[in-house]
Specification:
With 367 residues, this protein is an alpha+beta fold. 29% of the residues lie in helices and 25% in strands. The protein contains ten helices and 20 strands. The chain has helices at 2-7, 24-27, 34-37, 43-66, 84-99, 109-115, 137-150, 261-274, 324-335, 351-354; strands spanning 13-16, 31-32, 77-81, 105-108, 125-129, 133-134, 154-157, 161-167, 170-176, 181-183, 187-189, 209-219, 228-230, 235-238, 243-247, 249-250, 283-293, 300-303, 310-314, 365-366. α4 crosses α9 (324-335). The radius of gyration is 21 Å and the shape is globular. The two termini are 28 Å apart. Bound molecules: flavin-adenine dinucleotide.
Amino acid sequence: MAWRLASEGLEVTMLERGRLGQEASWAAAGLIAPQAEAHEPGPFFDLAVKAKNSFDSIVDRLTRESGVDCEYDHHGVLYAAFDGPAAEELKARAKWQRELGAKVDELSAAEARKLAPAISPKVVGALHMPTNWRVDNRKLTQAYINAAVAKGVTIREGARVEAIVESGGRATGARLDGGETLGAEVIVLAAGAWSNEVRGLEQDRIRFYPVRGQIICFDARPGLLGPSLFSGGGILVPRRDGRVIAGSVFEEAGFNKSVTMEAMEVILSAVRALAPSLGSIPFREAWAGLRPATDDLLPVIGPSPSIGNVIYASGHFRSGILLSALTGEIVADLVNGRTPGVDLKPIAPARFRDGNFERVKITLKAL
Ligand SMILES: Cc1cc2nc3c(=O)[nH]c(=O)nc-3n(C[C@H](O)[C@H](O)[C@H](O)COP(=O)(O)OP(=O)(O)OC[C@H]3O[C@@H](n4cnc5c(N)ncnc54)[C@H](O)[C@@H]3O)c2cc1C
């Protein structure tokens, strides 16, 4: 986002309370996979497909300008079913996705095993989503930072924003917790799961909350897995250097980023069922991160209804890596007075002001 804005000639300062890129964007699995992430047609799927196109359109320039290869691997996703109901669900998913123009192949068990020999022999069928790809999200975050710096963005780490300073219905700046105020013509709120900690926007009535995800990382030989593997219970996402990311769970645990025995057990049993032949690859590390969720689990991108020159870019929940380029595109359009090429209504901050949203309660749940 900062890179995009600076590329269009704006003077941009990023304020980060800790170190840039060390929270959810660091913890993610790195999937750029709209079809694998969407369980039904609707606004999320439409947005996710646009996000993939937007990502595809910037990745070469990002690599060039940042000097960082984010390892955008084009291996696709293999989504496996292990019983009749799961196979039916995948069939239905293939149908609506195909009707909406997405590329998806229905595979027999033998075809699935041919494409991904590591997958369990108990697989009964699978979908192949050949254009659902993946990145190394830590490298991607570094690429965005480098490219932003190369375009003149100022970065201030250790700068926690306490409040938006407002006068006559317009934001005039951001106040840091040490008392310093930085003036700005436009403020973009992109504080992830912590977005409610920034004071001054209470009238918008948007609730952001953290949904913990945990990952177990293994060391395997490079190339052991081709496509990223999904089942209804877990995912396995390979990295180019051989690491295999196993995830993930969804839990409401406040701002607690602990790795827990319970979640490890859930992930391990799901991914062992998915690819039992990986049972002997060595454990490397485990981590947790906090997805920024909203009451309807859709992102919040657009102007604040109460302070028009504050733009939200938050609530990206389970898809902020996928949505990264599109978010930058939308924010740059709004800041520069252009009409974004996506329907902003489902993601508009104003939807919470009058709506009566039942918060979706999330308990420990795989994938
Ligand atoms: C386990 C896991 C797996 C995931 N897998 C995927 C995936 O495969 N694909 C995908 O697309 N998405 C995935 N996600 C979701 C994705 O990681 C998030 O949606 C995305 O990273 C959110 O980005 P963000 O910049 O909004 O939040 P963050 O990356 O959390 O960044 C927010 C930043 O704001 C800073 N901050 C907070 N408060 C303040 C303040 N007051 N002042 C200054 N700075 C502040 C924080 O320190 C932090 O650095 C996953 C998430 C998790 C946890």
